[in-house]
Amino acid sequence: MRDLERRFFTPIDGLVMAALLIGTAVLWWRGATPAGHGGGGYRVFVAGHPERQRFFPAPSPTPITIEGVLGPSVIEWDAAGRVRIASSPCPTRLCILTGWVDAPLGTCCAPNGVGVECLASDRSLDGVTR
């Protein structure tokens, strides 16, 4: 009868859990700042299309156009480093009406899938509420 009993936690279970914890810690640590982008700047992306992602170490002096799900969106920065979506083909235009957004906050156009993320090197602030 003792041969058929199974222990709840075996050494193999412990090894699997340790490997998963170490793997999770490594992925979290590597994901804290995107590889090769030094922890500062801006990431412009289209949800679900990683090949369209672009990085900027500083605010772009000229507006940039990125092809979203519904069509092209134009993103602008001002001299103070604020960002906005200047035009987009979304139906409600809420992203345009939001206006200028201060760093470290980002902005997005949800229907078009376009977003701008501030890659601040100071991770102590993760958001601001009003």
Structure description:
The longest helix is centred in the first third of the chain and has 21 residues, at 11-31. This protein has a domain at 42-118: mini-chromosome maintenance (MCM) complex, domain 2 (Sandwich). The strands form 2 sheets. It has a 4-stranded antiparallel β-sheet. The protein contains 2 helices and 7 strands, in the order αβββββαββ. The protein is elongated. It starts with 10 loop residues before the first helix and ends in a 12-residue tail after the last strand. 15% of the residues are buried. The chain has 130 residues and is an alpha+beta fold.
Helix share bin: 10-25%
- Percent of sequence in beta strands: 25-35%
- Please state the average pLDDT score: 81
Helix and strand content put the structural class at alpha+beta
* Separation of the first and last Cα atoms: 65 Å
The largest beta-sheet arranges its strands as 2-1-7-6
Give the count of helical stretches.
Answer: 2
List low-confidence stretches.
Answer: 33-37
CATH superfamily of the domain at 42-118: N-utilization substance G protein NusG, insert domain
Number of distinct beta strands: 7
**Can you tell me the CATH topology of the domain at 42-118?**
mini-chromosome maintenance (MCM) complex, domain 2
Q: Which architecture of the domain at 42-118 would the CATH scheme give at its second level? A: Sandwich
Q: What's the gyration radius in Å?
A: 21 Å
- Provide the CATH top-level class of the domain at 42-118: Mainly Beta
Q: Main β-sheet, in a few words? A: 4 strands, antiparallel
Assign an overall shape.
elongated
The succession of helices and strands, N to C, reads: HEEEEEHEE
